Amino acid sequence: MLEIYSLLNPKVSNYGDAKGGIPEITPEMVAACLGQIPITGPALLVRTMAGDDTCREPLTTALRKHIAYLASLKRWKTGPKFWDYFEGLVRASVHFYVLPDTCKRCKGRGEIVRMKTRVEKCSLCQGAGRKEPREADKAAFAGIPRATWDDTWADRYAQARGVLSEWEDLADRATKRIWWTEI
């Protein structure tokens, strides 16, 4: 689905070249499908992942609201630096989900070509094409001390990432449902 979402990126102009792609699908068609997704978070997420930087701040705001609600439900303990850390958590979650580290070995493809004919799954990223950042990197980006991150905020980060993953799944399912009923 990300190939279809990437059609929303205003910098891309040609999808019918020798590298493959889906030439009969236009950015307008994809935008129309995403416009039918009723939930704000998923639509903002895929637009941001597709390269639309104007959606990053609204996505961060939507995630902040969702995680604040989740925090109240789960009765997260608060402390003197809670809101600063909370804001860092949300920003780190969006940053590392939208801009994951591309695997250096396979350059994001998830596979390595051996002897021009044999294709193998990249052993460094396990075929994902990207690498999860280290816990120290997440904590540093969020502005949370490493000990506090390990004790409290790493689990909360995982929950925020779970929300983003759910939003991506919702957007994928909605787009597939809308897309295949219109073709």
Taken in chain order, the helices and strands follow as: HHHHHEEEEHH
Category from helices, strands and their pairing:
mainly alpha
Largest sheet: 2 strands, antiparallel
Q: Care to count the β-strands?
A: 4
Strand order of the largest sheet: 1-4
The total domain count is 1
Structure report:
Helices cover 57% and strands 7% of the residues. It has 183 residues and is mostly helical. The protein has one domain. A hairpin with a 3-residue loop joins strand 2 and strand 3 (118-121). It is flat, with a radius of gyration of 19 Å. The chain starts with a helix and ends with a helix.
Question: How would you describe this structure in keywords?
Answer:
7 helices, flat, two-stranded antiparallel ribbon, 183 residues, mainly alpha
Secondary structure blueprint with pairings:
Blueprint (H helix, E strand, L loop, with lengths): L1 H4 L21 H9 L4 H10 L6 H19 L7 H17 L2 E2 L8 E4 L3 E4 L8 E2 L3 H8 L3 H37 L1
Antiparallel strand pairs: 1-4, 2-3
Task: Provide a short characterization of the protein structure.
It contains seven helices and four strands, in the order H-H-H-H-H-E-E-E-E-H-H. The protein is mainly alpha-helical and 183 residues long. The strands form two sheets. A two-stranded antiparallel sheet has the order 1-4. Strands 2-3 form a two-stranded antiparallel ribbon.
